[in-house]
Amino acid sequence: MTPHFVVATRPVNKPAFTRTDAEERRRLLIAAATRVLARDGASGASVRAIAQEAKVSPGLVTHHFGGIDALIAATYADVSAAVTAALDAAVAGAGDDPRARLSAYVAASFAPPIADRALLATWVAFWGLVIARDDVARLHDEQYAHFRGGIEGLLADCGVPPAACRRSAIAITALVDGLWLELCLSPEVFDAAEARAIAEAQIAALLDHQAQGERGEVQRD
Amino acid sequence: MTPHFVVATRPVNKPAFTRTDAEERRRLLIAAATRVLARDGASGASVRAIAQEAKVSPGLVTHHFGGIDALIAATYADVSAAVTAALDAAVAGAGDDPRARLSAYVAASFAPPIADRALLATWVAFWGLVIARDDVARLHDEQYAHFRGGIEGLLADCGVPPAACRRSAIAITALVDGLWLELCLSPEVFDAAEARAIAEAQIAALLDHQAQGERGEVQRD
DNA sequence: TTGCTTGTTGCACGATCGTATAGCAAGCAA
DNA sequence: TTGCTTGCTATACGATCGTGCAACAAGCAA
Hints:
The structure is a homodimer. The first copy, chain A, is an all-alpha fold. The first copy, chain A, is 71% helix and 0% strand. Chain A has 9 helices and no strands. In chain A, helix 1 (22-40) packs across helix 6 and helix 5 (98-109) runs antiparallel to helix 7. Chain A is elongated and about 75 Å long. Residues 1-12 of chain A have low confidence and may be disordered.
């Protein structure tokens, strides 16, 4: 017996969906992709999962981004910008003392929202794309150059001679990245405070060593 | 018109496949998984791709490992062991001077087969699993503890006081890992020789700084 | 109220995923 | 040669993947 009426699946006066400005919708999809990437990792970030997280139809991803790859790349750019903003804000709020600004940068690297297992999942997914795709590799190179440039500036303000800035910045970037990675992967080995102390000790050693080198007391390498 | 005979797809006297000892076959599958992981990354490491690389039927993966996850975990253990062996061999071949042994460790970290884009792809895939799965996370913790323990021993031989060994080892591990990661991700920014020089300069600064601290000249942190 | 623009839905398509299983056959033992 | 053990193949299954497309409808303009 077929019913002669259709059961309403929603209140008749409530819209089935809300139209949104294209750019705003893109932002919402990027935000959803960020959450899914953080929660389920790279393998879980499918078109359907992201669309469900954003409470929209899967077709919208193709419509606004042309494909899942472009959405992931846009998410990479967005997360990178958020990390940069968090680090810049920490440095800007540290006052005028160059050494304090450098310490603020390091401290922010090991504090939320940067030192976060969810952010690590996002970053690992991106590294996978950096290896596999040239366009994402270019995004990474730009971001890394930007990070290193920021450290170089902070080091120059601390009195590091220009000739040593580049290698010192690479060293500190690598140190912070390595500590950040292990802090997120195995939080029980050391905590954020110890990561910060380790980084500070290394930076102090680096600056002292360079100052001695300038005075001619020690000359290695 | 159906032919009255069947076309032979292979010489009648040649075996269609060769039987192999179970343990040996497991090794061959792990080797194939390593190659696929390095070539195509985590997303390309499917059962079918690995089986094709090993020139066997896909069913063999399930038969010998019970599932793709166990094969990937076994591959992780195998690659970790290979890295450990390469580092140990470099240290063992460096003679008796403690400082030279530490330098050999660092140099090996930035040379083949360790500093290799293919190995990075494998490692990134593993990190994704470390985040998603507890059993792989335990594998990682064991490996990291092993690496750090090795550095701690080398540092102790270099005269670093026991109380400082732990944090110094974490610092050097993070520094080398960070340099290794960026060296593999963006080989055009700096090369292996510069990575080695940067790491050596940091280690020199660390050891000098600690020696000064012991003599009471400087006391920070 | 009417019409138009376009953001959005919902479904279908082929490809590929991991896994289970029935049966074949390689190679050793007798 | 015969028989047996078991490594191995081949196939099928359901689930899920990314994408394309036609129709729908929300919301503004007139």
